[in-house]
Known about the structure:
362 residues; At1g16640 B3 domain; 40% strand
Amino acid sequence: xxxxxxxxxxxxxxxxxxxxxxxxxxxxxxxxxxxxxxxxxxxxxxxxxxxxxxxxxxxxxxxxxxxxxxxxxxxxxxxxxxxxxxxxxxxxxxxxxxxxxxxxxxxxxxxxxxxxxxxxxxxxxxxxxxxxxxxxxxxxxxxxxxxxxxxxxxxxxxxxxxxxxxxxxxxxxxxxxxxxxxxxxxxxxxxxxxxxxxxxxxxxxxxxxxxxxxxxxxxxxxxxxxxxxxxxxxxxxxxxxxxxxxxxxxxxxxxxxxxxxxxxxxxxxxxxxxxxxxxxxxxxxxxxxxxxxxxxxxxxxxxxxxxxxxxxxxxxxxxxxxxxxxxxxxxxxxxxxxxxxxxxxxxxxxxxxxxxxxxxxx
Length: 362
């Protein structure tokens, strides 16, 4: 699954528009009208897409505001990381490979900071700001499911400057280059995971990332920015995942959205969208197990039939104490909840087996 891509920032036409690379057209574009972009300020921007011949452009007021708020003048390369369907975390790098405004580890999991470099033989130099004042002699580097122990040292490349850089070298580094078949000059992005650990992502010359890696969601700021008028009916625009480290956002398969509000909590039931019920045969389930982080709560599945039309299933409701569920999960009302079906299990109740739908709820 494609997750990441790099491309040059168009300094001439931004913030009016930005042409996206062919990689986006071929591996990420599904015909959507807009994409959700998350900046270093942990705010979400719903940016319009324009198909112009063979090109796809980001444009409009939201894109202009994203550039203004998140991309300083010295950034020349943008890095898109797919966090969910049509949702990208975006950072950028200077000509020296130094990342623009960073992301604090407590807010976005393991993505503490990144740098962009090209592979060099005889050891790898990293920008001086990437590992400031780190004198650890050995780092563990994770790449494509492999782990390497690599020697590290601080070096002073310019004797007239007090700025130091970081150099990776030794047998461990040479084995990494050989095992991953890294070419001289190949684009690489290092992520500082903390605890003397680095993640390495490799990129083709067209900006496409070569390997998958674990991508954790960015915890968005609350309250969020106002929703653009063209996305006001999109329930995804109203949803904010508050489950730190939740990694079930790679697609929207088997997903529905419902708002937790006063009606749901007062009447102890939540109505599942009709189209979802029909596609997923919700009437065949007896219970639903809802999971949020470490919380697991069971709700009953109640089928409401239209007596005027025998055999037609009109509604399926999840019944239980929704107020208590919201409190246990830390949801503020109203809260747009995202339900993703992740499993079906069997359970014996009073001697009979029933089917239980297991949902991640965030």
